Amino acid sequence: MTRRRRVAAYGLLRVDDRVLLVADGPGWSLPGGTVEHGESPQATVVRLGLVQAGLRFSVRTPYDVLADRVELPGRTLVHHDRLVFEVNATGEPTAPSKWWDVSALEGVELTPFTRMVVAGTESDGGALLERDEGWPIERGMALDRSGGRARVQRFSTYAVATDPAGRVLLTRIARGFPGAGHLHLPGGGTDFGESPTEALLREVREESDQVGEVRGLVSVSHRHNPTAQGREGYPIDWHTVRVIYRVHVPHPTDPRVTEGKGGSTASAAWFRPEDIPTSELTDFAGSALAEAGVG
């Protein structure tokens, strides 16, 4: 069976008790779709909102992040990472979009992730089939070699992790990896068939031996580097979509790396916010801590 990964972004537009949906085959879905290589998820929502609903969305905050696996005709299994953003818009939508009263959706055919979002049930990071340990590509990566050049889109999750004393958990990047020697947030790519929060807590355990609890979303960002060069030894057109969560570690211990040899983490440590050596932080970690109000 062929396996693929797809990152998608959607807009949740709600006014009073109505929600905007677009026709999706025989059913209805939130407006949105595939995040193109190098495109920010927020830009995806704006682009497809205009195409599918004739509206110019103003993206507000991330609402939820989900994951699912869908089997398509021709024995193709697709893992979707779905980012949902709350949006604003003015004007009246055009076909194939339509306003629906939320109370009238019970008998309407909706895509499964749309029903989960619109119903308001907490997803805890995704409704999934069983996790697949046999995925042959590195964590979180969709690899495309068409055109003779490696192009990677990677979906990853990171933690602004704190303990009851207010300390912050940071990791140090190992030699041979981009940013080597700098302090970074614990986290990394998600496995095929793995929810974002499941992946995040696994990464926290592997990189620091801490057991955490996800407490909510901080932000969603992306980075596109068309000439990134790491351990592979040759440049790769690299696009990373990054979700940042707040994580609480109720029973902190002395951090230690458990992911084995060859991993990207050299060490981990707890820091009081005032003691964080800001000059040693990656740009990403510094921005994430500021967004979370830490330091």
Automatic annotation (TrEMBL):
* Highest taxon, organism lineage: Bacteria
Disordered: annotated span: 254-274
Q: Which InterPro entries match?
A: NUDIX_hydrolase-like_dom_sf, NUDIX_hydrolase_dom
The UniProt entry, under CDD domains, shows: NUDIX_Hydrolase
User: What cofactors are annotated for this protein?
Assistant: Mg(2+)
Q: Report keywords, A-Z.
A: Hydrolase
Q: Which Pfam families match?
A: NUDIX (PF00293)
| Domain spans labelled Nudix hydrolase | 150-295
Molecular function in Gene Ontology: hydrolase activity
| Protein name, entry field | Nudix hydrolase domain-containing protein
The organism named in the record is Virgisporangium aliadipatigenens
